[in-house]
Amino acid sequence: MISSNQASSHPSCEFLSKCPVWGKFQTNSKLFWIKQYCEGSKQVSCARKKLVLENAEVPANLLPNGDFLD
């Protein structure tokens, strides 16, 4: 789990610790996505978070930007 105390002016997404998509990534690429979408200014545009908040099913391979992993 990534700490909200790291260099970020945004609090961590409340769903970060339970988000299953991060298990599909290696550390370096995972950290890039997390900094952008889970701890950064793009949190409000996270496709996964939007679906969770709508109580909709979130595809396991959905990326925060709305793209899908192959």
Describe the model:
There is one protein chain. Helices cover 27% and strands 0% of the residues. It is mainly α. It has one domain (20-70). The N and C termini lie far apart (24 Å).
Low-confidence runs (pLDDT<50, min 5 residues)?
Answer: 1-7
Going by helix content, strand content and strand pairing, the class is mainly alpha
> Quick check: average pLDDT?
87
N/C terminus separation: 24 Å
The description of the largest β-sheet is:
none
Number of domains: 1
The succession of helices and strands, N to C, reads HH
Q: How many strands appear in the DSSP assignment?
A: 0
Question: What Rg is obtained from the alpha carbons, in whole angstroms?
Answer: 11 Å
3D shape: globular
Q: How much of the polypeptide forms β-strand, as a percent range?
A: under 5%
The number of helical runs is 2
**Helix coverage percent:** 25-40%
